[in-house]
Every structure is written in C-alpha cells, then in structure tokens.
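Progress narrative, work stream C.
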Amino acid sequence: MACPRSSLLCSVRTDDRPDPEQMRVLARLDPEAKLAVAQRLREEALALKEAWLRQQHPDEGDEAIHRRLRAWQLHGRAWLD
C-alpha cells in the first residue's frame, strides 16, 4: 500500500537495522566514549529540529524558536499555547 506523501508514518521504516560493523565499533567503546557519541547525536538532532522549526516559523526570533525547541523536548510538541 502506498503512503500519502504528507504522512509522517511513511517515513518510519520498520526494517531498519543497525549495521553490524557499527555495532562492533560501538561495542568496543568505553562508557565515556559511548556517552560522547550519544551526546553528539543528541546535539545534531536538536540542531536539525531547530533548523526545521526556523523553516516552519520564519517570522519568529531566536527566543520563540528556542521556546518551541524546549517545548518539543519536554512535551513532544513544539506548539506555543
């Protein structure tokens, strides 16, 4: 069944699996290095979300965008009610 282009669920793939080589590399890392990788991934994800929010709300300033980003982190939504 084809998904409508606007459907967010279509972008989620259920058959994605970690690359075995990536898993071997991660398994060899010490806890501090694993934490550093996780922090870097989180920072990159937040930067992507911030860029998307700026695209969706081009007239809003930094403070409003950061409030939306924080709301998304805390509540899973970026609305400012």
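Work stream C, second folded protein:
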Amino acid sequence: MKLLREYIGLLMSESTEPVKAVENVGGKEIISSTFSLPGGKIKVWENSPYAGGAHSIMDFVVDESQRGQGIGSQLIDAVIQEYPGEELSGQVSSLASLKVLFNKGFRPHGSSPSDFNELVEMFNNEGGSLNMRSS
C-alpha cells in the first residue's frame, strides 16, 4: 500500500525537479528519474542496459488535450539539464514525440536526416518507430 501511495504521489507531482527511484528491472537495479508537469511526464532510466549505457527515456507522455502548449519541450529541456553532455536515448512511436526530440537535437541512432520531412519518411519506413539519440 505504501508503494501505491508513493506512486500516486509521483504521478501527481508537478515539478521539473526529478523524483529519483530505484527500480528492479529484469533482476537489475536501475535508477530512474521522473519529471512531471501539469499534463505530462517523462521517466528516464540512468545508464540503461537496454540503450548501451545511455540514459533511456522510458515514458514520455503529454495528455492529448494539452499538446501543442510546449509541455513536451519543457520536459525534454529538464532532462537535458539534468544530464548535461550525457547521451540520451528514446524510442519514439508518435510524430509528436518525434518532432519534439528532433527540435531538441536528437537524431536517429546511426543516421542523420537533413530535415524533419526526411525524418518523417524514415519514421514511416520503420513502421512508425525510431530510436533517437542526443548528440
């Protein structure tokens, strides 16, 4: 019950200051940071074994009714400030998150499209999913 109350409190937190936690994932302890704003949240796993040691964006959600108001950009900015100069990775599955990450300097792992239209073409050719990395 205590963990449930902590989780609910975390979801209702409205600050770009990260809430740190230790998660057990596949028998490994991973430090996570969750950043929240009204209408959105983002969770990052530090030194993710699933991203080759890069910090991995695991949840990036902005309420549909809140999109287009800069919440996603603010959340990504908070993550970049928390991990300056460190590699960040995120698997995107929507055009909205693709655009936010592209505008913040993230590029597909292993390639560098010249513009957003080329990136959308890559996204569509990959079935609507791309791994994006910070530079």
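The mean pLDDT is 88. No further action is required on this item.
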